[in-house]
Amino acid sequence: MTQPRLGFIGIGLMGGPMTRRLLQAGFAVTVWNRTVQKCDPLREAGATVANSVAELVANADVVMLCLANTAVVEEVVFGDGGVAAHGRSGQHLIDLSSSDPAATRLFAERLAEACGMRWVDAPVSGGVAGAEAGSLAIMCGGAEADITAVRPLLAPLSARVTHMGSVGAGQVTKVCNQMIVGCQAAVIAEMVALAEASGVDASRLTEALAGGFADSKPFQILTPRMAAREFDNPAWHLRTLLKDLDMAVAQSQRAGSGTPMTGLAAQLMRTHVGHGHAEHDPATLVESYRRTEG
Questions:
Q1: Which of 51, 79, 164, 188 could form a disulfide with 169 if both were Cys (CB 3.0 to 4.6 A apart)?
Q2: CA 122 vs CA 89, 156, 211, 276, 282: distances in Å
Q3: pLDDT tens digit string along 202-218?
Q4: pLDDT exceeds cutoff 60 at 263
């Protein structure tokens, strides 16, 4: 059976390595990005670089998105010259972005009405390292037949693909994931600062707590960076985590479910972002608690 032609939109921290994985798996991939220079390394790796979204959609059976937020997804899909204007029945759109669940459901309906394309929300967890290794956890929302159709395309990217329900369910699951990550990031910052203020070598915390109930991926990643004050070359950005926590609070309001811890973590991060840390590593949260020398 001929492999489907893939179009990938959004060549950022995650989109770049995911596209490389797809190329290495033997898929023909056409890419498009608003900043076209980000596509140059992928061109060298074998991807075709489209001059427009229209050109990408025309040369793809499946369109994959990995974009910054819900507003950008809407713009790329429904804006002038977007995916919806050029899509056709029989194509799938896979949104790997972390987008608002309610908006995702509306987007799926609009896209089907506009051109007949089928929507699968497939947000990912695992960060840049997971994207590079093909070990992402992917949580999907969509019709059973659509998930079955796209599973082989997600295999090179993931250690696990879980069908969580109808369109939007994948995004709700990602929101749940980010609630845990965000609240952990906030308390890890407090914990590192407390250890330091109490005379404990914070660089030894990951060794001391490894395998215990406090151990986790965020703990393993953030604690050493906080302790060493190593904030350069962030694998993710504080603005992205804050965006996800805000979506969690919005979803809780729609569902009538309380999220006091998530709301507090979001407000702490919003304050830190307001001090100029939007593009910085979430590990910089620890600086909010450190005592000023002198």
A1: 164
A2: 20, 14, 30, 31, 24
A3: 999 999 999 999 999 99
A4: yes
Residue 80: how many other CB atoms lie within 10 Å: 7
Token pair, residue 217, equals: 């991926």
How many residues are given for the chain? Answer: 294
Region 140-160: mean pLDDT is 98
Burial class (CB in 10 A: 0-12, 13-18, 19+), 272: buried
pLDDT band, very low/low/confident/very high, at 184 (cuts 50, 70, 90): very high
Question: What residues are labeled active site?
Answer: 174
* pLDDT for position 2: 82
Please tell me the predicted confidence (pLDDT) of residue 294: 42
- Using the CB atoms, write b or e for 226-254: b if 16+ within 10 Å: bbeeebeebebbbbbbbbbbbbbbbbbee
